[in-house]
Amino acid sequence: MRRVDEAIKAVVSETIPTLKDPRIGFVTVTGVVTTSDLAQATVWLSVYGGEKRRQATLTALEGAAGILQSKVNHDLRLRRTPQLIFQYDPSVEDGVRMSKLIDELDPGPEEVTAGDDEK
Predict the structure, then answer these.
(1) pTM, whole model, 2 decimals?
(2) What is the rounded distance in angstroms from the CA atom of residue 8 to the CA atom of residue 43?
């Protein structure tokens, strides 16, 4: 199933930028989880921008699900084409937030002044 997930991720990642819907923002497909019977594939996405941009992008992708499923079917020739379900993946945003918090706690290496060497 991991190979199927990665193959679907690749096809969806390549196809999303070709969609002509202006509501679709900068999207990164972070993962795909497909059920064992190939009935559904949950596509996890990271969307650059605020909540409004995220919702508009998810709505547009739900509308384009048929096009994306058709592309998956054409490129992968699976015995069954899974229904694509799009979910926002907050892990990227959480990672950026955690990095900022860590940077605030640790200002970095202290600078050595010329007078400190002689002590």
Answers:
(1) 0.76
(2) 9
Q: What is the mean pLDDT of residues 39-65?
A: 93
- Greatest pairwise CA separation for the chain in angstroms: 75
Show the tokens assigned to 4: 């199927």
Tokens of 59: 């709505």
Q: So what's the pLDDT on residue 49?
A: 83
The domains located in the chain, with CATH, are 2-105 (3.30.300.20)
29, 45 contact by CB (below 8 A): yes
Fill in the amino acid letter for 75.
Answer: D
pLDDT tens-digit profile of 16-27?
A: 999 999 999 899
* CB-based contact 53:47 (threshold 8 Å): yes
Reading the block at residue 111, the tokens are 């600078």
